[in-house]
Amino acid sequence: MPRKFTATHLTVAAALALVAGGTAGYFLAPDGTEQKISADGTCPEIGTSDSLSKAFSRLVGSGEDVRSNVTEKGASTNSYHYSCSVQVNGSGRILLGVELAQSGSVSDWRTNLEKNGDIGSKKDYKSFTLGKSGSGVASPFSAAVYLPCKPIGSKLTVRPNLSVEVTKLDRGGDADTNRSDAAQVARALAAHAQSGAHCEDAERLGPIKWT
């Protein structure tokens, strides 16, 4: 008989696993009814504010059988990695990811996103800024953020950056709402990653400003 976990159990499990620097897998057993999927029960690192919770829930939707997997590694001063994936009723719903990268300029970073098809075609996405130095783009099904970050004590010679991506794996919903929600989740994930990567000049990101 599968064990049922509450959101509180999942959040505690996440915290313990991430402190250990490892990988945490969670399973929320079905109870035969549709349920909204919350960030605190699946990807708790992005925060639990009311507006953010609503944005995350809209992107992921609802379902009975919910599974998520979180990995966060930031023990080295020269590396940082975070990922969280959520499956609902056997299908992928959302994928969150952050890497400490050496993407070059914002323009270089954006060009690579376009080449890799990570944010759709140029006509589909809109740009935004975060704080003094953060830059982002959001399409109807994804969002990405570039944020300069040199971890405290890092010996990297090329200025590194956090590269944040949020991808809605199913293609349902309103395009403009999806774009806004994905950008909100990406902003929250960037804020968490600044702390996780021990960025030397971490800044208060403030609200998203569309350009």
Describe what this molecule looks like in 3D.
- By secondary structure, the protein is an alpha+beta fold.
- 27% of the residues lie in helices and 31% in strands.
- It contains four helices and eleven strands, in the order αββαββββαββββαβ.
- It has helices spanning 7-19, 50-60, 106-116, 175-196; strands at residues 23-28, 35-36, 62-63, 66-73, 81-88, 91-101, 126-130, 134-139, 142-148, 161-168, 209-210.
- The protein has a nine-stranded antiparallel beta sheet with strand order 1-4-5-6-10-9-8-7-11, with helices on both faces. A two-stranded antiparallel sheet has the order 2-3.
- Helix 2 packs across helix 4 (175-196).
- Mean pLDDT is 83; it is low at 1-31.
Q: What attributes does this structure have?
A:
globular; about 210 residues; about 25% helix; nine-stranded antiparallel β-sheet; 11 strands; alpha+beta; two-stranded antiparallel sheet; disordered N terminus
Strand proportion, as a percent range, falls in: 25-35%
Gyration radius over CA: 17 Å
Overall 3D form: globular
Please identify the structural class as seen in this structure.
alpha+beta
Kindly report the average pLDDT value. 83
SSE blueprint:
Layout: H1 7-19, E1 23-28, E2 35-36, H2 50-60, E3 62-63, E4 66-73, E5 81-88, E6 91-101, H3 106-116, E7 126-130, E8 134-139, E9 142-148, E10 161-168, H4 175-196, E11 209-210
Could you give a short description of this structure?
This protein has 211 residues and is an alpha+beta fold.
